[in-house]
Amino acid sequence: MQTARASAPILLTAAAVCGMLSPTGAGAQEEATTGEAAATPADDRWTPALSMRYHQVGGLAISNDGAKVAYTVREPLMEGEKSEYLSHIWVADADGSRNVQFTRGEHSAGSPAFSPDGAWLAFATGRSGRSQIWVIAMAGGEARQVTDAKPGVGQFRWSPEGDAFAFIMRDPQTEEEEKAAKEKRDVEMVDQNFKYGHLYTVPFDPMATETAEATRVTEGDFHVTGFDWSPNGSQLVFAHQADPRINTGRLSGDIALVSAGGGDVSQLVTGPGVESSPRWSPDGSLIAYASTGDQPEPVGLSDLYVVNPESGDVRSLPETPNRSVFILGWSEDSGQVFLNESLGTTRHVIAVPVGGGEIRQVTEGAGVVGSTALAAGAGRLAVTWETNDEPREVHVTGLDAFRPVQLSSVTADVPRPPMGRTELLAWEAPDGTPVEGLLTYPVGHEEGSQVPLILNVHGGPAGVFAQSFTGNPSIYMIQYFAQQGMAVLRPNPRGSTGYGKEFRYANFMDWGYGDLSDLLAGVDEVIEMGVAHPDSLLLMGWSYGGYMTSFAVTQTDRFRAASMGAGLPNLVSMVTTTDIGDYLVGHMGEEYFNDYETYEKHSAIYHIKNVTTPTQVIHGALDLRVPFTQGQEFYTSLVRLGVDTEFVVYPRTPHGPTEPKFLMDVSERILVWFNKYLRGPRPTAEEGGSG
Q1: First to last CA, the chain
Q2: How many angstroms separate the CA atoms of 406 and 86, rounded?
Q3: Of 95, 237, 442, 639, which has the fewest CB atoms closer than 10 Å, so is most exposed?
Q4: pLDDT digits over 486-515, tens only?
């Protein structure tokens, strides 16, 4: 254990704590502690409520001629009994002359897709009960329903001629299963009776007034995960895995072909690796796909390959910087494949040549490309773009040079109070490992003043903190903490994505040790900069960040308080209850029953007696990724140890808040917890309580 520093804790000024919550209940409103602060309009300060007003721009579509861009806007509904999101589709002219809302109503609409001729816009909506394909004419008129798929439609694509759709649908319940459910006899047999996703097609007639009957294209005990049409519309290429379980997707995946009318399935790419995301070239000669190579890579790896659909010949293309490809599509001449890839703290579109040559970066700048849509024939690309200081909006650019033109103005009228500036830092861990991170200063920070520092650890571990807008609504509202006079350090320790395969694998069988040294070295860097007060350090993280929080407090008492969100302190019980067990086995190197020592060495619960740091525990009641019992184990252990703690449980919540009221609540609760220990003497295990 590291000895607590002797320096006195820094106390927040009145201005810094004027937004501090009363710890009496959920969603308590901010209260000012000075007359001056009380007179400050709420819109002049960063709060979770203000961040929620930054509505999120989502999925994009661009017409083949590049003239129109469709995009979704998601807003939270939080009045009265409501706590949900509503998404609708907007359409903008690529020259910026027109930008209008295209769908309305109380049911969300998403997944916009222009017909090949640009005359129709298809989208998915549940307004008829289940998610179905609907279309609306670009010239105007009422939307109409195309499919009537009983369980609902998943992914869908227009045919090349625009006369049909292909879509994925899960197997529906049988009549007997429906009857059993009604009669409360619906016993679930775990890992049996899978509902596979299969391909269907449905014709599209512009003159029709009713839904058409869909044709099932694939049959069998496999689960379709992605697909594409051949350029002439005669075939479908699709990726499939052994069953629908998310863990299976880390272990199996092949590419196959089938006639668009159905029939025999022809396996195209098989083997021990995991293949996914097939995309057919415009000239029909090649199919691009992502693959882990000659073996599964549960820690995370996907390279770019192409296969000849006639001969079956496969070849790999140049390795991308991060080796984690996300395929967007092909160039019009079938000579390049466009990808979206994390590059350090940025995310950009890159172009990989098929015939050899250098990889080209298409988009540029210190920011993040999110959603994308490609109009290769028109040489245009639509993207969402954001930076540390500018919120996400829709832009369009040429493919030859990045000259983005902003089309949307979703956040133009939302107040933008002064922000805590964000700086990209670089440092070295004690073993020489280079590490990057983002430091957000308090709002109005004066050079030379030492402030409380929050160490915020991302999930994954193959997550990454990127240069996205720091005022975004998120589990951790960065500008909200900056408004309270706190600095926030968001490091990318070994194991993070964005820095290549070797860095992503650098924490293999080393969770809690090398990665923790990366994090603490970043904290020391901010202290040496004269920004962080050494005795006012705080710690928070979600998922793997929650794991690191739990493990860190067993290794050091430098932090005055910590908040573990959806953390996994016991890797033995975690690997047997999570829905992604092989991801954890991939990091630990072996099954737990063959190597208890490794799992115990890297589990906070086996070092729990060392903890003295007051640690808040937050978890979703319906979490399957990191089961609820993980949080319960840690909380109960802290109570029995006499370490100050509290357990915050969000009902109806999986691995992260899905309801906006809960999302707003998280940062407020954490702030209350942190301020409790920043403002008082450091507790000891003997003095603590159950909170």
Answers
A1: 23
A2: 23
A3: 95
A4: 999 999 999 999 999 999 999 999 999 999
